[in-house]
Amino acid sequence: MALAAVLSLGLLSGCAEDAQPTVDTATSSSADPKPTRAASEPSADSLASSSEDTDEEGESEEGGEGRAGSSAAGTASAMLDELTVKGRAPKTGYDGDLFKWRSDTDHNGCDTRNDVLRRDLMSITLKAGTRGCIVLAGTLADPYAGETYDFDRSANAVDIDHVVARSNAWQTGAFEFDEETLKEFGNDPLNLLAVSSSLNRQKGDGDAATWLPPNKTFRCEYVARQIAVKHKYDLWVVPPEKAAMERVLDTCDDQPTFAEDVDWPGPGDGDNVTTKEETRPAGQKSSSSGSSSSGSSSSSSDSSSTYFENCTAAREAGAAPVRRGDAGYGSHLDRDGDGIACE
């Protein structure tokens, strides 16, 4: 009996050991499929979490670039970011005449002032006998004011503005220019606009931090043009100037870099051109009278048959400076004999 009991207990133990692997196998194959797939494939929740992390990282990187000052390529803001920012240099040695404004730098036979007028005015009247150069009259759509003016050579209603003023240029790098670069800058069509005299004088030599056109719709283009000029000539901007430019450009929806065709029209060209003889402005004297009221007379070297009595009359007529060959030029006005009077 004892032997039978021992044998029976051994058989029962053997059956229990054989059954254990069966239970484990069944559990791993049917009772735990999800944990197995989760270990090899991300769940929907983990995919969402992973996707959110990736997006946040991407946004963070893009945001970091924006905070660093990057701008869309081809915009005025991007070009502004390329300019050096530092303090203003002293005005020591500055003289507007160093820029030789009104020189015929493109050798088309016309001085720069009349080149600007032929380009920027509408319904132009040219003076007969001047090879299509001198503008007597026209209409100006002033971009600074957003208003239209009649231009008359005998009245001083229109000026030519250096978009980046010569003084500003001098104090932001132009003091290092050689003579030819100064002359190029002073007569560059990119940097010149016909505008109303009153606003040009109001602006003076101000930069974007101290003066902007009253016509707010033109400010984006105005600032973009200033940036283009400074970029072309490797001039820098001072911190308040850059801050003001950025404030303007923030309102412009990716203002493109200024790339308009600004070249001068050829002599005789322009909008709706007509030609006529000039009527002598008040203040001019005929050389046939032999002298002015002050006793000065037109010399035989003067190429015009009339001359201004004095430089005040020339300025009031909007003709100053007056060059040898221009109507109104007289040697008594040209104190240094360089051919340019009432400078």
TrEMBL record:
Amino acid composition bias (Basic and acidic residues), ranges on this chain: 332-343
Signal sequence, renumbered to the chain: 1-18
Acidic residues bias locations: 52-63
Region annotated Disordered, chain positions: 20-75, 256-343
Composition bias, Polar residues: 22-31
Composition skew (Low complexity), residue ranges: 38-51, 286-305
Keyword flag Lipid biosynthesis: no
Pfam families: Excalibur, GmrSD_C
Record bears the keyword Signal: yes
The organism's place on the tree of life at top rank: Bacteria
Keywords carried by this UniProt record: Signal
Domain called Excalibur calcium-binding: residue spans: 307-343
Record's protein name: Excalibur calcium-binding domain-containing protein
Species of the source: Brevibacterium siliguriense
